[in-house]
Amino acid sequence: TLFQTLPVGTYTYILTATQNGCDGVSVPYTVTVASPVDTPTVSFNITSCEPYVVSLTATNAQSGTYNWSNGSTGSAVNGYMGGLFEVYFTSNSGCTSSNEISVPHSPQEYMWNFPTGCFCTDDLRDGNDITTCAGQAAIVGPYNPFAYWSYQVNGVDVSTGTGNHPLGFSNFGPDSINLILDNGYCQITSDAMYLSDSCSASGSQGLIANGTSPNNLDSQANTFNQNLEQLAPEILLIPNPAADQTRIEYRYDGSKSQKMIEIYDLTGRKVKTLRPQNDAGSISLQLGDFVSGIYQICLRQDGRIIAQSKLSVAP
What we know:
By secondary structure, the chain is an all-beta fold. It has strands at about 10-15, 15-20, 20-25, 30-35, 40-50, 55-60, 65-70, 75-80, 85-90, 95-105, 115-120, 150-155, 155-160, 175-180, 185-190, 195, 205-215, 215-225, 235-240, 245-250, 260-265, 270-275, 280-285, 295-300, 305-315. The model is unreliable at about 125-135 and about 200-230 (pLDDT under 50).
């Protein structure tokens, strides 16, 4: 056994074995000692906010190839979400090194927990006449620090912060509320949460009753008019909780073209993306690769989350 520390270069070894006065000589062995491989330098730039596009660049003074943890190859590649990216550099001599970089997630990925649409203020504050905890309702912002965040009421900032996570919001009135999140590269404004003091269903019905006693009642439906609206987007999980698999029943509003179903864990990390082809349907989701816990299933249409539901994965 021979151990040597050699400088960069090419070396030829021949092994000679002697026994009983006879020599045996091996074929030549050539050993090439290559220069140490430098660690690649990695950088990123956010080139688009909606859709979210991350430009990743790796450089090295030596010649070689680059392979990325997202499956891309080359010194300059694109990613389409935040998170940890690792690049593996292989020099022409066959030696390898690696480096990684953390890219902030798109603020849009944290908008799923902000309620949008129409709500009644009586259901959110102490004015309701139902004995529940609804009077203490509050919007709980994502538990992640942001370079800047703001709650806007009717277009005016009423609660802001920098470098921390959004605080809760519970000052509900007949207003329009938006949440603004800025990760230092992109600023995203949520769809509006509309609150009203007067919630009523649209429609009318008339009834004519003729008769002289409770036992002799003739009734005639006179008119019935109801405003029919387009079916709202919807997502259902069956069964839920689930251990091995669940079925995702989904419905889009049919007005857009780009459709995705995204699955996030409680840290906000996207763990899976599905791309349904139809406006409504069913997808079987295998859960063998999911650790037990709570996941958020988001129905996304043209970059905007339009419906969501929580999935509990049992051990």
